[in-house]
Structures are given as C-alpha cells and as structure tokens.
Amino acid sequence: VGACIVNEENKIVGIGYNGMPVGCHDDEMPWGRDSDNILETKQLYVCHAELNAVLNKNSADVKNCTIYVALFPCNECAKVVIQSGIKEVVYYSDKYKDKPEFVASKKMLDMAGVKYRQHIPKQKQILIDFTAIDAMTGTNVKEVLKADQTSF
C-alpha cells in the first residue's frame, strides 16, 4: 500500500508505504496476515502508508494538503490524517468498507470535515516500455510522457 501527499499546488510533499518501523528489519518480522498467534502477523508491527507519508513530509506541515492512497484509510490512519490537517483523501479501493475500523474512519473524517472521494481511473493499467524510452531523444520522451498523463 502506498500514499502520496500533495500541497495546494499539486507538488509532492510526502510519500510513504506500508513498512516496518525504522530499525525493525523486514526479514526478521512477520509479513503474513493469517496465524493463530497475532504476534506472528504483520498487523501489530507495520506502519501504514498514511502515517509514513506524514512522518516523511518534506515541508513544515501538511495542513490543507490532499493525500492519495490505494486503500481507504483505517481508523488509526484517519486520526493521523485529521490531526495533521490534511483536507482531502483520494482513495482507489474501499474493499474493507464494512469493517468497524473503516466505518469509524468515515465517521471521524466526516466529523472533522475532511473530504474523501474515490478515484475511478480512466485506464485500468499503465504500461511503461523502458526499451522505447531508451531509444528516444529528450524531445520525444517529453511528448510521450505528456500524451500518456492521466490526472486525478
């Protein structure tokens, strides 16, 4: 899962992904979801993308920014979004919408006045042909990238 925070000028001010806390090595921690022992799952250890994006910000704050996320934020991430002053959440999937954590998330975001909306992409995938890019001149690359841009 990933998250990207942009300011009012649509400039990236923070990015993050689901990962273990600093100093906790990925290869020494559990990454599974299912186990009879919750200590053997990732749930208790992983820092979510939204939290990491706020913590990894490259500006003084993220007030009035928009966060783009793959999944609708859980209740813990909604708290981080609200407390940091983010004004809008744009998400791709709401597949956990009926789980209590996500119902609570929407309740908190609504109460705090944080807008949220689902992004419906115009295309289901983007293909990047790196061999074609290597063969192009600088001008051609700019033209191809400009033609392939999709906007949120």
UniProtKB/TrEMBL annotation:
Enzyme type, top EC level: hydrolase
What GO molecular function terms would the record report? Answer: dCMP deaminase activity; zinc ion binding
Which prosthetic group or cofactor does it need?
Zn(2+)
The residues annotated as the active site are 50 (proton donor)
Q: Which Pfam families match?
A: dCMP_cyt_deam_1
Question: CMP/dCMP-type deaminase domain spans which residues?
Answer: 1-116
Keyword hit for Zinc: yes
Q: Which family does it belong to?
A: Belongs to the cytidine and deoxycytidylate deaminase family.
Q: What is this protein called?
A: dCMP deaminase
Q: Which organism is it from?
A: Magallana gigas (Pacific oyster)
